[in-house]
Amino acid sequence: MKLSILDQSPISTNQTAQEALQESMNLARLGDTLGYSRYWIAEHHALPGLACSVPEVMLGYIGANTKRIRIGSGAVLLPYYKPYKVAETYNLLSILFPNRIDVGIGRAPGGPAEASNALSDNYLQHVYKMPDLVKELIKYVDNEDAILQASPLPEISPELWMLGTSKKSASFAAENGLAYCFGQFMSDDNGEEIIQHYRDSFQPRKNGQKPYVIMTLTVICAETTQEAEDIALSSIVWGLQRENGEGKQGVPSIEKAKEFQLNMGDQESIERAKSKMIIGNPEKVKSKLMEIKSRVLADEIMIVTITYSPKDKHKSYQLIAEQCIE
C-alpha cells in the first residue's frame, strides 16, 4: 500500500513554534526512512497552534534533510498568490530536489478573515477567479506560455495536484487533467462518490496520463487500541477548545485532555470527531485502511496525525508503515 504524510505543524503546549517546525522536519525524515511516498506540509495563517505559514520555506529545509521522499505543499492557497510566482518557486525547488516536488493547490482561506485581508485586497474575487488562476499556473508549470518562462526550468516539472473536499473540486481536477487529493478528514461528504465522479470525468492534459487519487484520513495508531484512544484525546479536545475560542496554547497533554470539563454537547462532539478518525492498534488500523482504499478506489492514502508528544506521532507512523508499506 502506498502511504503518505500530511503535516499541519501543530504546536503542543510544551513547545515553541521553532520546536514544532523542527519536529516537522524530523517527521519528514522519519517518513523518508520508513518508505512513505510523500510528505506534504500545510499552509495556515494566524491560527494559534499551527506553525507553518510558508510551506515553500519549510520545503527547502526539509528537502535538504531528506533523500528520497516526495515533498510538497498541502496546499498552496492560490487565491493569495500570482500563479507565475508559484511556478517560479516550485520550479526552483524542483531544480534543487529533482523529481521530488508536488504542488498541491487549494482555495481555502487557511485562517481568519483578518489574515485573508492582510494577504490579499480582493480575496473573494480571487476565489471566484480560481479556475483562471489554476489554468495560468498549469501553463507556466508545463512551460506552455509562448512569451514567458517561469525560470529556472527543471528537467522534470513539479507535479500538480488539486486538493478538495467536494464534487466541485473533483470536477475541476478532472477537467484540467490534475491528480486529485480528497480531504476526507475535513469532509462529511461521501468520498467514494466524489472520487468515482473524478475518475469518470478525467480528461488527460498529457499523453498517457491517467487519473490518480489520494484519500487523506486522520489516523492514530499505538500498540493497543486503548493507548491510541488516549493519545487521540489530546487532538480531539484541542479541536473542542478551538471551536470555543480557546486552545491558543496548542495541543494539550493527555493528562490535561482527560481533565477537560465536558458538557453534553462536548461529549457528542467527541464521538462525532472519533467517528471520522481511524484509531487503534496496528492490525485494526491496517484493516480499516485497506477496506477504505479498496472501497473508494484510492491509489494512495495520506495520513494526518496530531498528537501532543512527537514520540507518539513517530510511533504511530512507524507502526502503520510496518503493517502496510510493502
From TrEMBL:
One of its GO terms (cellular component) is cytosol. Keywords: Oxidoreductase. Its EC number is 1.-.-.-. InterPro entries: Bact_Lucif_Oxidored, CmoO-like, Luciferase-like_dom, Luciferase-like_sf. To bacterial alkanal monooxygenase alpha and beta chains. NCBIfam families: oxido_grp_1. PANTHER family: LUCIFERASE-LIKE MONOOXYGENASE. This is LLM class flavin-dependent oxidoreductase. It comes from Sporosarcina thermotolerans.
